[in-house]
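We treat protein structure as text, and this decision shapes the records that our systems exchange. This encoding replaces a full spatial description with a residue-level series of whole-number codes. Below, we set out a record of this kind in full and without editing:
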Amino acid sequence: MVRLLRSAQNRHFNRRQRGFNAIFGDSAVPTEWDDMIKTIERQKVQLEEVLASYKAFREKLASLPPEVVRGMASLDKSGIGPSGTGAISEKQDFAGKAALDCAAIILRERNNEPTHYSVIAKESLRRGYKGRSKGTPEEVETRTVQSFWAAMSRSEELEGVGKGCYRLKNFRASQVSHPAENQHVGDPGIPIAAAEIADRSSVLTIVRESVRQLGHSPFSMHSVIEVLKDSHPELADQEKRPQITSALKRMCELNEIAEVQKGTGRAPSLFRNFTVSEERKRG
């Protein structure tokens, strides 16, 4: 009797085990689910490699010097690109420009009508301005608006008129910009950039842009002139050097650069850009 009961129990157990294996499979035997899992894992590794490459590419794009960005914009204006219009939108005219340069252009285009700093910042972003802020589009916009407010509130070329609105201090109606025309003002033989060189604020803006290209190593006025020879050769003349020196001193007064060594005799003064950590401490 005992043997019969045990035999019946064994047959019942074996039937249950076979049913379980039929549904879930035998873990010791490979199934189609194992192959699917391996395929998913391979695809995951491939996607992670693609994502890492994409992030590295974005970082390289963000580290491009301003002159390269301007060169890309000039290619766009020449009609170079897969569709004949270039890879960069025609309206991306603020690529590589500083925040105060963008603000000055927008205010001139608006005939110096007092404009809120947030409006200026957001229009600058739409036209290709790239700051140092990173994050989601919303975070970048918020930080860019804050940085524009900080720069505009400290600028000697702008004045606040209340409620966050600013305008240019020294403005003439002849300074109104027309980006669609962007050819000549006054004498047809004088480009816009050359016509504005006489304005001291323009010289300061141009020198400020040139200084940013010199990195964090000490530099002198002669270093700035070497940069200007390529970007603004009309400012690299001997007679323009006093204006460059004044612009550098003004940048020191505005705490935009540091003077690391005063000039003595024929030895020129040496200046230095602030590092990112120094700027954070100052901010």
The first helix runs from residue 2 to 24. Confidence is low (pLDDT under 50) at residues 76-90, 178-198. Residues 190-283 form a domain with the Arc Repressor Mutant, subunit A fold (CATH 1.10.10.10).
